Protein: Isoaspartyl peptidase
Organism: Ulvibacter litoralis
Amino acid sequence: MKQILTLLIGLFVLFSCKNDTKTTSRTTIPTSELQKIDEMHGIVIHGGAGTLLKKNMSDSLENAYKEKLKEAILIGDEILRGGGTAMEAVTKTINVLEDTPLFNAGKGAVFTHDEKNELDASVMDGATLNAGAVAGVTRIKNPIDLALSVMNDSPHVMLSGVGAETFAEEQGFSLVDPSYFYTEKRYQSLQKVKEREKNKAVSVSFDDPYSKDSKFGTVGCVALDKHGNLAAGTSTGGMTNKRWNRIGDAPIIGAGTYANNATCAISSTGWGEYFIRAMVAHDISAMMEYKGVTLQEAARIVIQEKVPALGGDGGIIGIDNQGNIAMEFNTAGMYRAHINAQGELTIKIYKD
Ligand code: ASP
């Protein structure tokens, strides 16, 4: 009898709490909390890290980059402001960056040693810890959309190459001819890297500063929406002159991309081999989760200490579940932008 009574009281309490809350598709958050989250939502993007120096950049090119970053982030911001999901904001923002030749993702992807373009991308949903990724695709105009479809429409997390493209066709994606990704600038970069290799100016091309820096422009986006959910996404053409179906960190969940509502959302850019070995994106989240370290401090430790100690370089963008952000890099610059809940826009390329 006592047990039944306890059960009834329990059910009553549960039911009355429900009237006090708004229900999102996945989480139930009290109304007062939703009000707070409304004031915290935000979005951060990057367009790659590297030896970005003002002296090497014309005013018109700098403006072109800034304009594109602005156009992209405004799309995501509008989605968030309208109550859309962090994942929608992330993917739609990345689409803009994939569709311009300016960045090393989608249209502007760098060339492999075999003069092809092989693209990598991934997304992660902080509410469910669901993730999707594609690697080495050659006929997908917007790889971030296929990564999302892998997450939503397949039982898998990561698909690669021809199989990923077969899946894409089955999902109704129209495939582009690989020549869509041809840009003269990226093609000439590859020729220059190969020339240096031939002349034995370098033995391992990724160690060559020219080679490393001719890959600028991986793109990424992280967002916190009005429902309190985090999402992250990253899309890239990888590194110039890559061989043997090399896959970088961008499609590796935990290295290039990670999101967890308990902590933060992260997107990485840099020398992928080191970002995989340091598990950069998850490491930042883990420090927050297990040690209570702030996003900014965790990002600093990983980007300024752990990655350089291995010999790698690059950066990350991050946003935590309170809307605090980090844009940390150990290179000369990183294309980056942020819009907070108050609508304040920041766009930067160099250290400051
Ligand atoms: N992380 C990318 C890769 O290694 C390249 C980059 O971010 O610039 O494939």
In short: The longest strand covers residues 42-50. Residues 9-25 have pLDDT under 50 and may be disordered.
